[in-house]
Design goal:
The chain has 2 domains: 1-32; 35-341, (Glycosyl)asparaginase (Glutamine Phosphoribosylpyrophosphate, subunit 1, domain 1). The protein contains 11 helices and 13 strands. It has helices spanning 2-16, 20-31, 46-57, 63-76, 119-129, 137-146, 158-168, 256-261, 264-273, 278-292, 294-297, and strands at residues 38-42, 96-101, 107-113, 134-136, 203-208, 214-220, 241-244, 248-254, 302-308, 313-319, 323-328, 332-336, 338-341. It has an 8-stranded mixed beta sheet. A 5-stranded mixed beta sheet has the order 7-8-9-10-13. A hairpin with a 4-residue loop joins strand 9 and strand 10. Helix 3 (46-57) packs antiparallel against helix 4, helix 4 (63-76) packs antiparallel against helix 5 and helix 9 crosses helix 10. The longest helix has 15 residues, at 2-16. The protein is globular and about 50 Å long. The termini are far apart. Bound molecules: glycine. Residues 201-202, 220, 222-223, 232-234, 253-256 line the site of glycine. The site of glycine has 12 residues, from strand 8.
């Protein structure tokens, strides 16, 4: 009920700012697709993340609170690719990247954070209590501990441990990420590395609350078996996450280096600002990566996920296999992303 009241207020305010003769037509043109609150997130694991975030959104909570709640949920789950159970770097150390951004363009991030369970909350603390955006490594850990976060050892999930042991046999530094095994049984089946290890990576989530405000967050253990000290897109505002409350928001998953090179999510939001749909905006960013090096693009995966101010969402990936989860008043499901290289 409160949701409806908020929406009605929003529509009334917008209608009053429009000349009366145009108001009726503009109402239909501008608001026919309004769908919020809504939360969308990367991968099929996004379903449980969305469910956690929805508890906040459906109670008229702020989008940024929903984002933190959803991300904490997956950080609490023993998972190959997020949190203390995630894939280690090549030295066997789990290092975590996360960032968060709200409707006022406030943002915070941590990179290379060790032995702290909830990097998303540390990122939020950076956003809300410091003049900085990004803290890294020991400094990020020190900041977390000073702010009451407990230090606890990483505990590799079964799948992360299995994959690391397998990788150690050759220790080849070949950062193949998210090349889903096309024989894994269809778009909604879990995606696996050849050794049978689940190979999803980053959890990126975007939410719009009942006030129509946008926020986003990302949390990950990053690329499996990366060089110690490597930071991916997930800690970089404008790469793994960007929110512009006037336009829309975007997040990414896949090989972070490729996303950083094109300032991927900032680019997606700028494409939306130019009038592109979220899906087209994601496609144009993917095309930018593919065009830069078509041969290399065949060997890697990047997926973008975006939402605009009407609550319209879309995604696009380099390769087949990128899926994303959506929860709104209208739906609760996993979608398959379109892709550039079949
Ligand atoms: N997208 C996650 C990473 O590259 O670390």
């Amino acid at each position: 009920m409160a949701d409806k009241i908020d929406r009605r207020k929003f529509l009334q305010l917008s209608a009053f700012s429009t000349p009366l003769f145009a108001a009726k037509k503009n109402f239909a043109d501008n608001f026919s697709f309004l769908t919020f609150p809504i939360v969308i997130s990367t991968w099929d694991t996004g379903m449980q993340v969305n469910a956690a975030a929805w508890k906040i959104l459906s109670a008229n909570g702020r989008a940024v609170d929903a984002i933190e709640t959803g991300a904490r949920h997956i950080e609490d789950t023993l998972n190959c690719c997020v949190g203390l159970g995630g894939n280690p770097d090549r030295d066997g150390i789990v290092t975590l990247d996360a960032c968060i951004m709200d409707e006022h363009s406030n943002c915070g991030a941590v990179a290379g954070l060790e032995q702290i369970k909830h990097p998303i909350s540390v990122a939020r603390k950076v956003m809300e209590t410091t003049p900085h955006v990004l803290l890294v490594g020991n400094g990020a850990q020190q900041f977390a501990i000073e702010n009451g976060f407990a230090k606890e050892p990483a505990q590799l999930s079964e799948s992360a441990e299995k994959a690391y042991k397998e990788w150690l046999k050759t220790s080849q530094y070949k950062p193949l990420i998210n090349i889903e095994n096309k024989k894994s049984g269809g778009p909604f089946a879990p995606n696996f590395l050849p050794n049978g290890t689940p190979n999803h990576d980053t959890m990126g989530l975007l939410a719009m609350d009942t006030k129509g405000n946008l926020s986003g967050g990302v949390t990950t253990s990053g690329m499996a078996f990366k060089l110690h000290g490597r930071v991916g897109d997930s800690a970089v505002i404008g790469a793994g996450l960007f929110v512009d409350n006037e336009v829309g928001a975007a997040t990414s998953s896949g090989v972070g280096e490729e996303v950083i090179r094109i300032c991927g999510t900032h680019l997606v939001v700028e494409f939306m600002r130019q009038g592109n749909s979220p899906e087209m905006a994601c496609k144009k960013a993917v095309d930018r990566i593919v065009k830069r090096n078509p041969e290399k693009a065949k060997t890697l995966q990047v997926g973008f996920l975006a939402i605009n101010k009407k609550g319209v969402y879309g995604a696009y990936a380099i390769q087949k296999g990128f899926v994303f989860s959506v929860k709104s008043g209208n739906e609760n499901k996993i979608h398959e992303s379109k892709y550039a290289i079949g």
